[in-house]
Amino acid sequence: MRAAPPRGTDGARVFTAADIAEMRVATAWDVVERTGFVTLRESPYGDSATMKTRRGKSSILLGSADVPVVLVNGVRQDDPRTLRQIAAENIEKLWVVNGIQATVQQGTNSGAGLVSIITKSAPDSK
């Protein structure tokens, strides 16, 4: 059994492209689910209905502070369902940060944590 990914100096779980490849998952959503930090649930219609963090259940649709902040290449995403659109094979690195450290990094509206993704660069087309 493989050891858990290393923690960054801020307590974040850091997943590299190699870690993610070993998970054999399809999307960033799946990676985040595997961390155990956040449980993402969908409605019967495929919509993202709820997100459960260690602090409990909250509604994504309300956009409350209980929904972890999602950053992709440093850009804050309005809808956590964006994670479904990012192929796991395109992720260079993914961090999952707890609420306290996320608040330090991103401010008071990130008390439920932070998911930050850096995608792989597209090859130069020369």
Descriptors for this entry?
126 residues; 29% strand; alpha+beta; Ferric Hydroxamate Uptake Protein, Chain A, domain 1; 8 strands; three-stranded antiparallel β-sheet
Question: Could you characterize what this model shows?
Answer:
With 126 residues, the protein is α+β, with helices and mostly antiparallel strands. The chain has a single domain (13-119), classed as TonB-dependent receptor, plug domain (Ferric Hydroxamate Uptake Protein, Chain A, domain 1), CATH 2.170.130.10. The protein is built from three helices and eight strands. It has helices spanning 17-23, 28-35, 99-106; strands at 13-16, 39-42, 48-53, 56-59, 69-72, 75-76, 91-97, 114-119. It has a five-stranded mixed beta sheet with strand order 1-7-8-5-6. β5 and β6 (75-76) form a beta hairpin. The longest helix has 8 residues, at 28-35. The protein starts with 12 loop residues before the first strand and ends in a 7-residue tail after the last strand. The relative contact order is 0.22.
Number of helices: 3
**Mean pLDDT over the full residue set:** 75
Taking all Cα atoms into account, the compactness measure Rg is: 14 Å
Number of structurally distinct domains:
1
Main sheet strand line-up: 1-7-8-5-6
Which second-level CATH architecture applies? Beta Complex
Secondary-structure blueprint:
Elements (H helix, E strand, L loop, with lengths): L12 E4 H7 L4 H8 L3 E4 L5 E6 L2 E4 L9 E4 L2 E2 L14 E7 L1 H8 L7 E6 L7
Parallel strand pairs: 5-8
Antiparallel strand pairs: 1-7, 2-3, 3-4, 5-6, 7-8
